[in-house]
Amino acid sequence: MNGQWEVVIGLEIHAQLATNSKIFSSASTAYGSEPNTQACLVDLGYPGVLPVLNEEVVQMAAKFGLAVKATVAPRSVFARKNYFYPDLPKGYQISQYDLPIVEHGELFIRDDAGNEKRIGITRAHLEEDAGKSVHTGYGKASGIDLNRAGTPLLEIVSEPDMRSAKEAVAYMRKIHSIVRYLEISDGNMQEGSFRCDANVSMRPRGQEKLGTRTELKNLNSFRFVEKAINFEIERQIDVIEDGGEVVQETRLYDSDKDETRSMRSKEEANDYRYFPDPDLLPVVIEDEYIQAVRKTLPELPAAKQQRFVDEYALKGADAEILTVNRAVADYFESVAKAASAKAQVAANWVIGDLSSQLNKEGLDIVDSKIDSFALAGLIDRIADNTISGKIAKEVFEAMWAGEGSADEIIESHGLKQITDSGEIESIVDAVIEVNPSQAEEYRGGKDKLLGFFVGLVMKETGGKANPGQVNQILKEKLK
Amino acid sequence: MATNSNELHTRTLAELAGGLAAGDFSSRELTEALLARIESHGSSLNAFITVTEEAALAQADDADKQRAAGEVGPLNGLPIVHKDLFCTKGVLTTCGSRMLENFVSPYDSTVVERISSAGAVLLGKTNMDEFAMGSSNETSYFGPVKNPWDTKLSPGGSSGGSAASVAARIVPAATGTDTGGSIRQPAALTGITGIKPTYGRVSRYGMVAFASSLDQAGVLTRSAEDAALLLGVMAGLDPRDSTSVDEPVPDYVGGLSKPVKGLKIGVVKQHFNEGLDEQCGNAVKDALKALEGEGARLIKIDMPNIDLSVPTYYVVAPAECSSNLSRFDGVRFGHRADEPEDLLDLYCRTRGEGFGEEVKRRIMTGTYVLSAGYYDAYYLKAQKVRQLISRDFMNAFEAVDVIAGPTAPTVAFAIGAKTDDPVTMYLNDIYTISANLAGLPGLSIPCGRADGLPVGLQLVGPHFSEETILACAHQYQQITDWHQACPEDFR
Known about the structure:
CATH architecture of chain B: Alpha-Beta Complex
Number of domains of chain A: 3
Oligomer: heterodimer
Shape of chain A: elongated
CATH class of chain B: Alpha Beta
Number of domains of chain B: 1
């Protein structure tokens, strides 16, 4: 970025809450059904129907609040946000306005320099999602699918604390990790269960006052958040440096063209005429309730990361990678506990071979073809010298292919490491015998030739000979 | 009692229940008699939007079968009509509006469901001010309802069709809703009994909303006894309405025998001001004396903020209405403009054509008071005043058991007399609106005449004191016969 300018970024993240039914009706929230098959009369905004709060969402919001060290409001109020749109059946969205359920939270990310940085969370509030308008395939008309209408959302609003697209992404990843740890959202970005709007403004470095911001919409992947913000930074700098002024407006990110373009300006913005929804009572949360929810909280990423360093002596960076996703952390921990090797070995396997295999096949760790106990079984065989690390990779691939446990594969493929020194000695003798001139050169001081002999021994044994023993025996025989 | 189907319409619900139980007549006979009465006397009043003749006869037959089988619900075989804003499955539910002229509800409101499960027979849906916005029934898309006491006069509103049909002895009982007086004022103007219970006493689920924090369902009947019977069926917690209250429903009928002796009745200074017609005031004062004669104590009270009720109401109610009526956009149900050019055109013409003048006025007012820059000065201020009015009531109920006074400032007025001046029309609800703002139960009973027309006495009690005000009304009806008076042309 141009050194003269500083970007200021705040994010509004919408996390779809993982309830079975909608926030104010009993209709299902399952994704991908035929249009309008999961919208009941309440979701359709029929005359006379009334919303009834799904209490599960209150618990989920409270969990989130506690997880980010926020205040869970003893009293929060649902308000109506009034505007007309065909996929908004009632002509208003039920949301929370001046009294949200969660306020004043925080979390920590690593900034671009690798230092820990606090990001404030202004608030998180509950609201219902709107439906979906489909503008193609209906001629002059539009199609409306109200399956999504009434789906519960937690809108998480950050302070404008981020100073680069990378920081914004780091923050978003932390939130993503937390909501999944809490199991309050599946975080599925393709299905729109986790999406974000970014408020971006520029100011001369050193200036306190914020510049005019634009709001970027439709950022439904981490990559797009980064690209859209970076595009917007350049665009705003260009506008300012060309002597213009940034206009306060909403801009839509087009991932195909990798650009943002204006949707509507401040002047065109709706006056939402918020007022407390008289159909719903204030949400009152007692202290005992908070304490009960607190007891249900799982260990959160930051705490788990620290514990992995303390308890398993992992490298900090590895602990961080392993704790982004709770399932990965659980998998690692299960391997570490079951295996007799050092936990760092388990970490290396999970972060290395296992992750790359999962990525290659686009699988989640819970769908891994090698379960944690099987992987521990493999690590044990390395630790007890049954196989070498190199052979282990071959065993791993066979395990992934479904050929059985490490032991079965070692047995059936005959991969057991040769540790019988008599056997190794006889192979070494044979190798020296057929290569007398190289043996002579080695003895004459050409140490590098040891590798040549090791390679031959390994080749003879199909890689199964214990490398340490081979080295040792060769050195003795070639004295 | 001799059974002559020509006089079944003169009987109250309680009397009809006795006749059905004694086997004097069947629900089928009763239903046929009342359908004939609707046919002969209903149209001159324009009280009905829909008559559900076929379904009514089928329900009557079912009720008779249930009775024969010994499965008798509390309203078994008894007739009922619903104000046309209670969603009724498979039946037109218009709200008196062109917007819902063809709207057949796919579901039953809780009120309809409970009354129907109690065995009642639905005869039809009654005319009303459009979306319950009005005090004279003149805002209905289906034309004004006429007052059976004089068909040139308005029956009041917004539950005008319900009131007129009960007053004219077409049906013994009707449901209504009351947002600012829409049950009590028409009850007063037609000489019948009407109760608006405590906010939250009866579920609002399936009641097309006007102003959600004020709307409450209730009943219009010819006696407090009938009101008690019907309210007992309708009241109670409904999980589908978050604002309905989990408070046990007392035996209202059983509680009617409680004497008024010792009852402390508050008489509000501000109720007897210059706005009150003198003859109406005299009738109310006579009624108070009659209650005093039965041993009640009259206590003068002062409610300093009560005069702010009308302006407060006309901020809060339109604000809520402007939002509640946003769903009528031509997209999913109700009226839709022909051949819209684009989305804006669809909205503008659908709503422009579908809503009447008074509804539009209130949507505009409500939109204004909620707008950025005006919210604090209007909506927020009104909510604060609402709290003050509530506090006035709470203070009053420290000293008295009920508050009694006039229901309306005048007797029934001529159709067309106030339509040009909305504010004069709004002032008709000056005595009723405060009970809605404070969420209190209120009822109106006939208590005399002025210019030969019925005058209503209003009783308002603390939250969930329906039993008290019904008993007081019933006791009054034991010593007076105003509630038995029938308009001449409808005897």
